[in-house]
Every structure is written in C-alpha cells, then in structure tokens.
Design brief:
Helix content is 87%, strand content 0%. Helix 2 packs across helix 3 and helix 3 packs antiparallel against helix 5. The protein is built from 6 helices and no strands. The C terminus is likely disordered. The protein has one domain.
C-alpha cells in the first residue's frame, strides 16, 4: 500500500513539475519585487502605481535578458558554419594525433561522435524553448502581480 502511494505521489509530482516551476518562478520574482513595492509605498506612492512601476522594471529587465539571449543565439547560428569547419579541422587533427599513438580510427567514426548536426538540433531546441518561456512569461508576471496585491497586513510583516 505504501509503495503504491509512493508511486502515485511521484507520478503526481512529475506531472505537476511545469506548473510548479512556473509558480516558483513567480514566487521568486515576487520576493525580488516586494521590497521595492513596500519602499515606494512608504514614500507615499499609491499601491497601484508602486506595483506598476516595479512590474515595469521587472518586465524591462526580462526583455533585456531575452534580447541578449536571442542576439547570442542568432550570432551563434550565423557563425555555425565557421564552427562546423573548425570542428572538422579539429577532428582531422585528432585523427592525426590518434594515428601517432597507433590508434586507428576513421574520420567517419569520429564525425559520428562529434556530429555538427546535433549542434543544429540543440540550437533549434533552444529557439523552441525560448518560445515556450515567452508564452509562460505572461502567466508568471500575472501571478507576480497578484502576489503584490495581497492584503498589506501580510506584506508588512516583512518590514
């Protein structure tokens, strides 16, 4: 009975991991944003304005991070042919080194292990992952905003 319950609990945790990850990201951003909201409220800024200012800063920061990562991935994909050429040269140098050590390996076998196509699939996966992150970002930001608008009695305990 205990083993069956453990299996069900583990299965439930596995199925809920994406929702839990979104919730934890929202909690993290809310914890980062709560002190500035409270500080602005102490400076007599209305709650709505304080929350909107902090959310604007969080959104701007996230957009900058997305822009930097997107630019890096774009630069990487543009430079990929150059990296593939260098990888091929390194494979040839490795093959020559292995031959000096009396280890016979074909170039085809080495290229199977060091496949440039897998790098392309990795980059494609990163782009697809960025799309899912951006779609979940709105949900995370709405959850963070709801954390800021909780009753002030619970947030004032952090002061």
């Amino acid at each position: 009975m205990i083993a069956a319950a453990l299996v069900i609990i583990i299965y439930g945790i596995n199925q809920a991991q994406s929702g839990v990850a979104l919730f934890l990201a929202a909690v993290f951003l809310a914890l980062l944003g709560t002190p500035p909201v409270l500080w602005l409220e102490r400076k007599r800024v209305p709650s709505f304005v304080a929350v909107m200012l902090v959310m604007a800063v969080i959104i701007a920061f996230l957009l900058i991070v997305v822009a930097v990562v997107g630019t890096s991935l774009n630069t990487f994909s543009d430079e990929l042919p150059h990296y593939q050429r260098r990888l091929h040269e390194q494979v040839l140098a490795l093959k020559a080194f292995l031959e000096t050590e009396h280890i016979v390996v074909t170039e085809k076998a080495l290229l199977e292990y060091l496949n440039p196509g897998s790098v392309m699939s990795l980059v494609a996966g990163l782009f697809a992952g960025m799309g899912s992150v951006l779609s979940n970002l709105i949900l995370i930001l709405l959850t963070v905003t709801s954390f800021f608008w909780r009753p002030r009695a619970s947030l004032s305990n952090f002061e």
